[in-house]
Amino acid sequence: MLLDSSNGQTGDKVTLLSPKMTFSERSLLTFSYHMKLNESDSVAALTVYRYTRLHTYDTVFFEARGNKGEEWMHREECIPAGEYQLAFVGTVGLVSLSDIAVDNIEVTKDTDCRQQNSSSSKGLVILIFAFC
Known about the structure:
This protein is mainly beta.
């Protein structure tokens, strides 16, 4: 997902939504993200939610705000068992001055939510997303 701020207005949101998935146990969500923002941008954000069958964003798994510089960041988040979708929501900040990207999204089945490359990993699910 690439959120190019020159293609929207401040406060616009773009959602990358996974297919509905059933997590039979706690799992480890990993992804890379990039946030090159104007230093004064207080609106731009990347938020990862649990999107429920009731079409609500009920749990925030991760939120990032502020300039993260030129480098890609790597993030790991434990997510609970259940049936839901993952929603990556990018909020446009200052037009033409803030860009957000997400890549390499993976879910590893791991009841202890240890590091992805640990020997306790039990499998890998790569998510295919649709833009909403």
